[in-house]
Design goal:
Radius of gyration: 20 Å
Largest sheet: 5 strands, mixed
Helix content: 25-40%
Order of helices and strands: EEEHEEEHEHEEEHHHHEHEH
Number of strands: 12
Strand content: 15-25%
Distance between the termini: 7 Å
Number of helices: 9
């Protein structure tokens, strides 16, 4: 496809956001609609948004979709979607049938990482690990401008690994009970580092029921949270040794979060020298949908895109 415009769609559990990225790289159009909580309604909503852009541009524009799960080529189906009505469904194939084979799809955390690596807080870095700290905990890996996926379509899914050194650091943490995860395991990173995980920790430590955004940044709860996050990310540095770790999602808005994690990170890794930068996403909530646009790389002048 030689069109220089790109459509990006963020397929969320409660809303679907679509943007048109113009030839100049700026957002030329944006729209949000509620997400139908069933499969055929979701497919219809996506195709209707694309049709609206087609009318606007007068052409068939390439479409990238950030999905709340993974597309598995071997089974031609979605998996691991918290929008459960998508699991086991041939979402990419159905959309390509309806939209003339111009759709690419990736996990929403992968799209976030791609956006920040190519044109955000990680721009210019060779290896970027993008982190989502929100309703869930996810991640994406970009190496030399390209997403890593892997044969199981789960590269970057650190949220469903055990929280390292649980209860080993402080008396406060020692008082926390085990936390079952929806994946069937116990004490996954997500159960402690998601927004609800932070709120649950604050409730357990203080008896005070707050939303994650309401937890004071200078509280013992927030201090414990940054310690847990540093321990979990130290394992990523041990394995991947990225140049930059970009923090996104609602919890990343805690004041001073990146700095606190950067200070603590070397304590927990193997021979860390503090060379991995910890930064907050440049594009905020828009990173995912902008990354979806970039699943179709913009062509160079005079050359067709892949």
């Amino acid at each position: 496809m030689t069109r220089r415009e790109r459509i990006g769609i963020d397929l969320g559990g409660t809303k679907i956001e679509a943007v048109l990225l113009g030839a100049d790289g700026a957002v030329a159009w944006r729209k949000r609609v509620a997400t139908p909580r069933h499969y055929h309604g979701t497919v219809t909503a996506v195709t209707a948004l694309v049709a609206e852009v087609d009318r606007l541009t007068g052409a068939a524009v390439p479409v990238g979709i950030g999905a709340p799960g993974a597309w598995v080529p071997a089974t031609r189906a979605m998996k691991n979607c918290n929008s459960t009505w998508l699991n086991g469904r041939p979402l990419l194939d159905d959309l390509n049938t309806l939209l003339a084979n111009r759709v690419r799809i990736a996990n929403d955390a992968d799209c976030f990482a791609l956006s920040e690596a190519l044109a955000g807080a990680g721009a210019g870095a060779s290896v970027v690990f993008g982190v989502i700290l929100g309703t869930g905990v996810g991640g994406g890996i970009v190496v030399h401008g390209r997403l890593l996926s892997g044969p199981n379509a789960i590269a970057g899914e650190w949220g469903h690994t055990p929280l390292p050194y649980l209860r080993a650091d402080t008396a406060l943490e020692a008082s926390l009970a085990d936390r079952p995860c929806y994946c069937g395991r116990t004490n996954c990173v997500e159960t402690f580092l998601s927004g609800s995980g932070l709120a649950n920790t604050h409730l357990a430590l203080t008896g005070e029921r707050l939303q994650a955004a309401q937890v004071p940044a200078d509280s013992p709860t927030a201090d414990l949270y940054t310690t847990m996050l540093a321990r979990a990310l130290a394992q990523i540095v041990n394995v991947l040794d990225p140049d930059v770790i970009v923090l996104g999602g609602g919890v990343s808005n805690i004041p001073g979060l990146a700095g606190a994690v950067a200070t603590k990170l070397p304590r927990y890794g193997f021979s860390h020298e503090g060379r991995t930068r910890i930064v907050v996403a440049e594009h905020g909530d828009a990173s995912g949908v902008l990354g979806a646009c970039r699943l179709w790389p913009a062509p160079l002048p005079g050359r067709a895109a892949p």
